[in-house]
Give the backbone structure.
Amino acid sequence: MKPLLFALPGNEAMAAALCRAGGFEAGRWELRSFPDGESHVRFLSEVGGREVVLVCSLDRPDDKVVRLYLAAWVARELGAARVGLVAPYLAYMRQDARFHPGEGVTAKHFARLLSSAVDWLVTVDPHLHRIASLDQVYSIPARVVPAAPELARWIGARVPRPVLVGPDEESAQWVAEVAAVIGCPWITLRKDRHGDREVTVSVPQMGPWRVCTPVLVDDIASTGRTLVAAVARIRDAGMGTPVCVVVHPLFAGDAYQALLGAGVEKIIGTNTVAHPSGVIDMAEAICSAAGELLAAGAA
Ligand code: R5P
């Protein structure tokens, strides 16, 4: 029997794409809020003895986590064999250090919470920086789906003579990977973040790349300020109008408008987060990673 797939609100498109990609049966359930705001979860499909997979991208996570946690535990209470989570975007991974006295490494605490609710996890390019691998914080089997092949396919097919530009040193890992698949040059800029929305970026000598189309590649656009600052410096450096490609188009508040207004050719993301820019489809890659975990019995 195929695993039963249930989409948390806002994840219907990804769930449908996963079912189309094969390997899952769409489950039926009712999710609503009681008048007092508490969540009501009721499975209509029989989950007893079945592999259950919940699909919930964890952008804006604080509003989603209680319902996700309850859904996982209700499925288990009803006898689900195992409960897996497909979280195309995994939250809290940027909180991977104590940046100021009195803070905590919330990536670790969030991981503990999810690990206590589900049996396995599949996600796309979590922000692995000071935490080198999900195993360091998650105690359940966790599989990372790289977005690089899909980003490379999109850029390679549509952008003439690209030079990939990572807005900061952290981005080198994914920029280099995408550039290697395309076979094009890449560089990184230097970023200093002074606050949530205060970012400065400096650009090295761009001389050799002036004839290329700059493609800014980053894993996350949240406030968009990193990309806005990078676009400004690239334009100051006399390069062409940049294309922006992000794995997770979170775009909080006015971020998308601010980036559009900064003078970009195009903004493109993957569909790990429901957003108009999210046109690069990760469903097949996610589906095969989840299938491997299920087949390996880790799930
Ligand atoms: C940095 O660590 C990440 O790779 C992104 O560059 C960053 O999270 C983007 O954030 P924002 O859009 O808020 O500048």
Notes: The chain has two domains: 4-146+282-298, 148-280. The first strand starts at residue 4 and ends at 7.
